[in-house]
Amino acid sequence: MERWYICLQTRRSPVELTDRLSKLVRQYGLSEFITRACYEKGAGNKKQGEYYYFIGVISEEKGVIPDDKNNVLHTVLSQLSLYNIGLYVDYDEIQPMASKEIEGFNFRQIKMVRLKKYLPNDPFDFAASAEDSNIAEDTKPVFNQLLFCLSAYGRGTWQQFRAICVEIGIDSTGEYARRISRNLRALGHIELSRDGQNWFAAPSCLVQIDDGDHQYHTFLAGQRSPRLLEMLQRETHVTITSQPYSNAPERVLITFPDESAALAFADDYSRQHHPIRSAGYAGLKIASVLPSLDGWETTLPILSIVKGNYHFEKWVDSGFESMSLPQDSGMYRLTHVSERFEHPQLTLYYDADTGIWRRADWYGIRFLALRRTGSSCDVHYDPVQHELAVSHDQRWPDLYERSLVLASGQLPVFRNNHAIYSNISASQAHLLTGKLGANLIEHKGT
Amino acid sequence: MATFPQWNEAIINFTLSGLSLGSRVFLSTDDASLETIGLSFSEPRPHSGWLEDFKRSVRHKCVFGDEINLARFAYPLRDSKSCPRYIPFLSAMVLAAHNMGDDSGEKPIDPRAFFTHFNVVMGLPDQQGRTKGLTTGEDGKLWEDWNQWLRTQGFLPTAIPGDPGAYRYTRYPISQTVLRQSDRNSLWRRFTDGSWKKNYDEVLLIQRIRKDAQYFTRHLRDILHTDSDMWQRSYEAISRACYEVYEDWREDGDTASRVGQSSARVRTSLDARLYRTEDYFSGTTEYRLFPRQPRQAASITLSVQYQGHNYTLSEDRPGWYMPLWSIDAEQLTNGLKVPVISPNSQIQYFYLPAREFWILTLDPQISESGVYASWDKGVEIGSPFILLAREELRTDLMKLKNEGLLEWESINSIFDGWNEYRGVTVQAEAQAWASITLENDALRLTLQPRVNFSLAFTGGLRAPRGSGWLVNHGPQVSLASFIPEAELAVYTEDDEVVFSNTIEAGKTIDFPWGLPGSYKVIVTQDGHSDERVVRILDWSELDVRPLSTDQFPSEDNFGICGALIKD
Description:
The complex is a heterodimer.
Chain A: E1 2-10, H1 14-27, E2 34-39, E3 51-59, H2 67-79, E4 88-89, H3 91-94, H4 140-153, E5 155-157, H5 158-167, H6 177-186, E6 190-192, E7 198-201, E8 205-209, E9 216-221, H7 226-235, E10 237-241, E11 251-256, H8 259-272, E12 277-280, H9 282-289, H10 293-299, E13 302-303, E14 310-316, E15 319-323, E16 330-336, E17 346-351, E18 356-358, H11 362-372, E19 378-382, E20 387-391, H12 398-405, E21 413-415, E22 418-421, H13 426-436, E23 439-442
Parallel strand pairs in A: 8-12, 19-23
Antiparallel strand pairs in A: 1-3, 1-4, 2-3, 5-7, 6-7, 8-9, 9-11, 10-11, 13-18, 14-15, 14-16, 16-17, 17-18, 19-20, 20-22, 21-22
Chain B: H1 4-16, E1 24-25, H2 31-38, H3 50-62, E2 63-64, E3 67-68, H4 87-98, H5 114-121, H6 138-152, E4 156-157, H7 171-175, H8 181-193, H9 202-211, H10 218-224, H11 229-233, H12 235-252, E5 269-279, E6 284-291, E7 303-306, E8 309-312, E9 315-317, E10 320-321, H13 329-334, E11 336-341, E12 349-352, E13 357-362, E14 372-373, E15 385-390, H14 394-402, E16 406-407, E17 410-413, E18 418-426, H15 430-433, H16 441-447, E19 453-458, E20 469-470, E21 476-481, E22 485-491, E23 497-504, E24 508-509, E25 517-525, E26 528-537, E27 560-561, E28 564-565
Parallel strand pairs in B: 1-4, 5-12, 20-26
Antiparallel strand pairs in B: 2-3, 5-6, 5-14, 7-8, 7-11, 9-10, 11-12, 13-14, 13-15, 15-18, 16-18, 17-18, 19-21, 21-24, 22-23, 22-25, 25-26, 27-28
Helix pairs in contact in B: 4-5, 8-12, 9-12
């Protein structure tokens, strides 16, 4: 097939002419024959007047218009007040006179919708997202649906997690998803990979809690489905309660007469459907396997940072302050200098002695930085109410907080600038504060 | 010996296995596929073979005296689980259609010959014309019920009737034979006569076949033609069927003619593709091996030993195993052959082919995930993709860009000698590509669009495994097209029109999907139409995904996974 051009002379506006020609090509189904057009440099300039307009066509042989196209072409040209004078050229012959800016084009370019794309962000940097108070009461069932959905997928990418949160209406921008994921992790429903790029549903399990009587009380953590809830409601005694700020899936409390009844239910369900395990006192168990703060620090992933690539800000007195290069140990916010790539902002811990950058959840880094820079950490415990209060400015690293949350299956409530965790035993309080080097102050009736 | 209901269930499972929801389904039945289906029965192969067992079963159930008696097997049309009950009968029709046509393949298929072949399959070789007892149109009702059932399951039917007239209903089974016996034979001959290489993957093979189209049967030439509806809408099925013949040929050695027609398909190797992940924090991109499952095969256990590590291949989703290790430039450039250990199959190796370029598209089941891999789908207009291409192809690609045929957002060098083109979109329709000459013609054939419009379903809340969208979170609909608009119609399962209007290209429609169920979506433009199925699911249909024990590396988390601690 040859590609060649029909030369035409006109005084009409080239833009208008091209627009009109495109429509006629579509209207008369000539797109297989007429594929391009271009026009003379300076066309449209009033002083120039008449100029050459070139219609690019494809046919077996240069200058030969197929019979089935001839009449239609004539009609199209007539409607454009153009007349074929039989002057046919190759593009090479007209290239010098065709304006560079106005080169050949396809008459029918694709029209499509671009997919919405989220700029990458750091899932562990939940401090950057809005506070919990933004959650409306009527979103409660939606968090349950979120957990059903995550349970059904089993795993996925962080981008997908954000898209799901946006779609079900609990996150308008894809930023608040970070806080949602922290809450879900604290409740033992999901995990995040160390690089934050993937999430994983956690296995379904019954977590034991004390309720001061002789029955066996548990709550459901990990994967759940409508069928599981339906079966639990049918065969056991279930109480469903909201989380303190309705910002996470509801707590499903299941009461069995004794432990063997719980195990029998779990065995029976596991055989027929998917495995449900017994986690015992998960909060206390987690508290016992977690290392000291020093031990925790050494397990944090190390990032290799080229200092010249970032702007640095250091966390000082509850805010970030800009600085040229990091000198002291502490918590830093790093913003990549390049705007060419989609680099998310990073919040890291810098150890000035070793020059090592470590990554963890936002609260965890802040806690580490505070402890390493000599700040003391006071924790208040009420042994009567079994409540533990951690200062809002000194929230714990996420796994230590998970241990607290799993003692009750409820996220903390916030009072007087403290996060209050319920159903905490004295032994658990001592164990965790000891590991984190915090001062445990016991009160009665705070 | 298998019963009619056993064949019924086995054929349905075989036909749908490894297909993503939304795929076009062909009830393509031939001698080899019946032999392969027979392997799924827990009994030894009959002495006469599974093909004969199938015919025996169908004749026993469907023929009474010298007549077909639909009342014996087809009514009611569905069983207690609402599955079709008559599939072996339709398969027998397709088997007959499969044998139509002379071996040269030059003469067009004569629909009048259909019943000659069908009567032989049904053990009534003396009958001429339509089989006794099979009233005109009754077979059509079965095909339409099969089509309807496929839609409710989220698949796209492909069986279509002919124009009104005497052979209207024989067109249904004929439409199901992507490749007939004569087409397969002609492919086989060409592979042998042309001494074709044995390391093509599916993408390269179909390009090579198109180049040699003149050597093939008329039917094959027709469906390979870019203007044909089959090519435009059922490219994957054609490509898959051709590759199946190629794999048979590769497994059989250089025999001059097809010898394995009546034996089950045996596979000794798997293909691996590429799976791309990106770490936004370090800015690194990884390409991992992504093994493809053997198609329509029973469940098999596979593991791989590589550089001292043992990898067990576990399913990611139907058709695919979980991605394996990251590859390097050398493996990407030269390909890779890795021994496989399999106690219950004949698979011995998997291959990463050495290609000049790879097309990577968004995960078709979870496009929000941002995961790109070389899924089967290939380039779809209106969907940006990633092109991983050798440096030598840069000139060709720049030419396409300068001609306004292709556009991309950025180029990055990931491996030595390779470039990654991100956000690539096809800008112009097929006609505009016709006159372009490239050094690498496979590149042009792969990138140039097959269709002029494509419907996209975006947003909403997708249920896992591509099974549909959750109620009240249905997808938005948009049209990618070279022509500004098209006609869009949406039907319920009962064929009630719930929407019929013009859709403008490049605009999104928030469609008010109703109650849970399957919706048929048909878009029509310029005399061509495309059908899709959208399934809306109730929340109660969600179930948890079984977790593999090693999916979350809890050793990095002090053994903690959720509320559990690993022992």
